[in-house]
Batch of 2 targets.
Target 1
Amino acid sequence: MKKFNVGIIGATGMVGQRFATLLENHPWFDVKVLAASPRTAGKTYKEAVEKRWAMSTPIPEKMADLVIMNATEDVEKIASMVDFVFCAVDMNKDEIKALEEKYAKAECPVVSNNSAHRGTPDVPMLLPELNADHAKIIEAQRKRLGTKRGFISVKPNCSLQGYVPALFPLSKFGIKDVLVCTYQAISGAGKTFDTWPEMVDNVIPFIGGEEQKSEQEPLKIWGKIEGDHIENATSPNFTAQCIRVPVSDGHMGAVFARFENKPSIEEIKEIWKEYKGRAQELELPSAPKQFLNYFEEDNMPQTKLCRDLENGMAISIGRLREDTQYDYKFVCLSHNTLRGAAGGAVLMAELLCAEGYMD
Ligand SMILES: NC(=O)c1ccc[n+]([C@@H]2O[C@H](COP(=O)([O-])OP(=O)(O)OC[C@H]3O[C@@H](n4cnc5c(N)ncnc54)[C@H](OP(=O)(O)O)[C@@H]3O)[C@@H](O)[C@H]2O)c1
């Protein structure tokens, strides 16, 4: 694979820092541009982040002296310096939508962590193991934007990255109803226990906008390309409650599911064990070898023990059993800032490079 020059828009933030660490030694991607708000532009990366560095590894040496560019003013210049950008910015939804389109129209593809374009019908929302074929909609999006190379692709919300991977491979049994309760880590809010001390010894039963995303976004993943857009599926029917718990990283989900044709427990476990997606077929650098990992022990998966499985890119599942109201219940776990944020976006970029969309 040839090397791609990349930029990180929002490089100083929580997700941006994660991108920087994941890309430090990436075999395909070379970080050439770091950009953030006008408040930070002009400083070196080290000056900008040393007081708010939240990663467990040091600031990447290669990036420490890069001068931060202005994410909103330097679009054309940035587009001329890189093959594509990763984007994770804290701005309002309309501003993010406009900014990402500006990069795409400057012929710079955008691999986005933001939610702003998840509902745009010709923007693929990719989980590379599940719906890699949705990338084909990029052609229609380019037509709408009037671009040759430029496009936007997004990753789904972190909350669903345990239960959707577990359920999607079971689609052939006709999944009717899914009830899920998520127990979500504080890093999902861009916080640590130092910056959010109220979360120590506490549970907050509300995460703004999260339940809607957890119920609606899966329907785009189950959707189909129809002409110039992705038509969302109308089933499975999802209902969700999302709860913030005192955990640094790792979102747990407790899932109940009802099928049209109820599979056996053995069938489900076998499907999980054997499942391989496009990311595994293409042997993408960030793809976990074993995507879905079932644990037989009653007290697994545990957040601290399992969240870093395969560099935080694998999904852990456990406690599959019959339910009195639904057919089955089980629990699942995914790393929210790796699989659920920057890692998932890096994997999506690898997929798009391997499939020729970044040429
Ligand atoms: N945290 C997570 O786990 C997570 C997971 C999935 C998705 N996301 C999404 O990813 C995005 C970033 O989240 P985060 O937690 O990394 O936020 P964050 O830590 O607050 O970082 C925000 C970034 O956006 C930049 N920014 C703010 N205002 C800007 C402006 N007007 N123009 C250009 N850049 C601007 C900031 O630059 P300055 O340093 O210059 O202010 C910073 O680099 C959000 O859309 C969030 O919803 C987060």
Target 2
Amino acid sequence: MRATNDRRVAIVGGGLGGLAAGVRLRLAGYNVTIFESNERVGGRANLIERGGFRFDTGPSLLNYPWVFEELFAAAGRNFRDYVRLLPVDPSITFRWEDGARFQLSSDARRFLNECERLEPGSSPAALAFLRDADAKFRVAFDKLICRNEDSPARWLGALTLGELRRTAIWRSFDRELGRFFRSRHLREALGSYAMYLGGSPYQLPGVFTILPYGEMAHGLWLPEGGVYALVEGVERLARELGIEIRTGRRVARIRTEGGRVAGVELEGGESFASGVVVSNVDLPTTDTELVESDEGFKARSRRRAARTKMTPGVVTFYWGVRGQVEGLGHHTIFLPENYRAAFDDLLRRGRVPRDLPFYVSAPSQTDPGLAPPGDTAVFVLAPTPTLGRMPGADWRAEADAIRTKIFATFARQGVALDRSRVVFEEVYTPEDWRRRFGLYDGSAFGAAHTLGQVGPFRRKNFSAEIEGLYYVGASTTPGTGMPMVVLSGKLVAERIVSHAEGRARDAGSRAGAARAASRVGAVNAEAREDLRRAASPVGGAGRSVGRVR
Ligand SMILES: Cc1cc2nc3c(=O)[nH]c(=O)nc-3n(C[C@H](O)[C@H](O)[C@H](O)COP(=O)(O)OP(=O)(O)OC[C@H]3O[C@@H](n4cnc5c(N)ncnc54)[C@H](O)[C@@H]3O)c2cc1C
């Protein structure tokens, strides 16, 4: 029975991490069943369809398509047969109140021109920045991100001294940018990625220059049909491989017996036995709410979760807009006048930034099929503190205040979009993100990527306390973002396979030991027989003993 269940895997949650883990485990010969509480898979990368508009709930752009290409190639399939990618280039426009603008592009010449425009004479330094970030990127992906490594010494020990120096982990992200750029605008634009990592550019390590660089080097893409078309592609692959996906099935608890997982119990009472459970539900939520355990485990999990630094929450708006919005590209980030104060409000003071940074995505500018003919699908994201940092907040009122600020910014900066043109609106607050997808404390992107929460310092993808319990997704290794959680699926599958091999080796050596022990037993029995015979007056040995005697 145990042997059968060891090949059965229950995956709790059909986010991209859960789907990717499922594919990898199926390819390794496991029988995989995914239980998803919502009516469709995708998790944060979900879908709202209304009145001819198609909105992606979370991710609005795809980076590092090679991660998806590898996933499909592992299954002998071609990613491009499942998903068609549309390039978004120039990808992101940054805008400031003082009228400054900066465009990110995969075209290096264009990038250098943009740098030159904002900081005359900066193009040689901008080129040096690209070269440096490229070297960092290679080191990070080749040696740090794409492997399971639990020992900090071995993790960093994989780097040469030069590579270690290159990572700039002792310098802040902003200071690292300052080695190349003096322009406040360039530093703010390239450093603004820190927000999604759960820190400020003044705290997070310099290695994160790989983020803006990665977007330039690998491009930003919109799957045709929206990001949800990517989820549908991965779901199709999973089903073709024989993975069972059960949607609308909430897991009430992860069952344990004697310190190891026994399967899952669904809401309504149905049980599913399995020797391996992979939870794609946000890791701190899994430990504090789903795992059946004693009080000790629960208390330790609550303490660990409270200690984990999480990324901010978000308020997101989905607007169906009548007509075209002139001057608004696919993706625009509005940065505040007082940039540092916005990070302080968000991360230290625990309040919605007064001077609000936010971004606007209009994917129908790239794929007109996402809106009725001539209309525009608009998605807006504004960062907020997590739920615990604003206890008792009225999140509907907060969302109203944020909306007012956004329209005021549009009016000041000449974006031709006012409220009267919005014919459809849906709003998700951090409470909605928590309730719909189980996001711990309403944090949008999972555990933060501070120095103490990356690599072997991040929560590992297996439980040290409950055998057979594994984690996949944004709050475990390697981290947040669609490509990262797909890599997380690969890493957790490798972990499960290597643990199973370790157990088989142990069992092999136990069997060997048993065989050896029984050989020893046989030898001892022969020796005892010899002694018995020696002591016996009628035995051969006895004869010899007799002879001696
Ligand atoms: C607003 C927003 C914008 C983003 N923008 C981008 C972007 O542009 N590019 C990018 O790459 N990334 C972006 N991200 C990050 C990216 O969406 C996430 O890192 C990634 O999708 C997380 O995937 P995951 O595998 O961790 O699982 P999740 O998406 O968290 O999925 C977990 C699944 O578990 C299910 N579940 C929860 N509880 C239960 C239960 N009890 N039983 C069964 N099922 C359960 C949930 O319904 C969900 O489907 C964005 C995220 C957000 C929120």
